[in-house]
Amino acid sequence: MGKEILVIGHQRPDTDSIAAAIGYAGLKNELHQGGFQAARCGKLNRETEFVLSYFAVTVPPLVDDVRTRVKDVLDGGLLFIHPEATVRQAGIFMRQHGVKTLAVVNNERRLLGLFTVGDLARLLLEAWDTGNVPMDEPVQKVMHRDNLVVFHQDDLITEVRQTMLDTRYRNYPVVDDDHCLVGLIARYHLLAMRGKRVILVDHNEKSQAVPGIEEAKIQEVIDHHRLADIETAEPVMVRNEPVGSTATIVSKMYREQGLKPEKAVAGILCAAILSDTLLFKSPTSTLTDKEQAEWLAGIAGIDVNDFGREMFRAGSSLAGRSGREIILEDFKNFNFGGTMVGIGQIEIIDPGTLPVGREELLAELEKLQVEKNYDLIVLMVTDLMRNGTELLYTGPQARAVERAFNVAPGVSSVFLPGVMSRKKQVVPPLQRLLQK
């Protein structure tokens, strides 16, 4: 992905997170003639796989973290010399290019050793006494080949920095998996270093962001959730609107620029709106969501209702999933004033499609609560046909669910008619109770 600006959604991505990243990267590339790359930081769920396959859109590359690595600071210069070159040739080459260290490599560019201006000076000083100036000797006879400090291109800069402080050499060779030279790194690279550039879509909460976000340079935030705890070193463009989907905002931005997304991109953006608004049944749904979905559907050549039902049918198929996989299908972490809460959500069309029973789901919730030390962990089983959600929950702060939704003490599940949205109907009341 090189030096491109990453456009990336939250961990455990849903259709909105992926579609917004692809759509916004496409818009930015059209406006700026390239330089933006959609990415993801987790495995796709079945609904999103269906959507991308339906519209023949390539799955964005996986980014495990955005911490700065050695390859991110290399400047592209690659100077080296072969072992049969003479000391004289090496010296001339150094002077021509203004460098003080040369990597010595074979014909496959595998690193053999280093020859430095210090080595050249040492040879000339020794020749002062002997009268024998070894300028026509091959560098392989005088190069350093033992105890070299070599970095791999995927090494973290935080680890490299400490090694540099401990050894204090002028330059260090960088190699790939085959021990082939990819460049030299020096202390000045670290002084000029800047974090990877990232645009966040569909989230603004550190616990949901790609690992290493604290080292990245956040360029923009496009979201439709509550404002949370993402911090930046300087002002950035933030667009946060109370609509049902981030894809709705991206669609509006295309129209504001007088542009239309490509047919396939329009299709996945429309799908994301339908997904996040639960076919406009969610209380987060707005007239703007409907307007944008219809506009996008026209470009993509789909019927909103027919496609939406087909998408939910594909996405709600949980056959073969374990209880834990079902819980983590669409799972988000929240920190409410030091209280750690995990909330998962799945959508079903038919209760019979759940491949495991409530008892197994509750048992897995209890295991996860202990393993991750959650104060409260909740699974929302949202039934699109019944227009409501069953909450399964456990943890030391389970009383918060009872108080928020008027549930009798001592139970571990409750069906809430009309509750469809995690963001608008479950998170806010729990946050009010737990953040006090």
Write a concise keyword list for the protein shown above.
alpha/beta; five-stranded parallel sheet; 436 residues; elongated; 15 helices; inorganic pyrophosphatase (n-terminal core); CBS-domain; Diaminopimelate Epimerase, Chain A, domain 1; metal ion binding; 3 domains; inorganic diphosphate phosphatase activity
Description:
This protein has 436 residues and is of the alpha/beta class. Helix content is 37%, strand content 20%. It has helices at residues 15-32, 46-54, 70-73, 87-97, 117-130, 157-167, 187-191, 246-256, 263-276, 287-300, 304-315, 323-327, 358-372, 399-405, 422-434; strands at 5-8, 36-39, 80-81, 101-105, 111-116, 151-152, 171-175, 181-186, 197-201, 217-223, 237-240, 331-336, 339-348, 376-383, 388-394, 413-417. The strands form 4 sheets. A 5-stranded parallel β-sheet has the order 2-1-9-10-11.
CATH class of the largest domain equals: Alpha Beta
Radius of gyration in whole Å, from Cα?
28 Å
Instruction: Name the CATH superfamily classification of the largest domain.
Output: inorganic pyrophosphatase (n-terminal core)
The overall pLDDT, averaged over residues, is 92
Order of neighbouring strands in the sheet with most strands: 2-1-9-10-11
**How far do the termini sit from each other?**
44 Å
CATH topology of the largest domain: inorganic pyrophosphatase (n-terminal core)
Largest sheet: 5 strands, parallel
Uncertain runs are: none
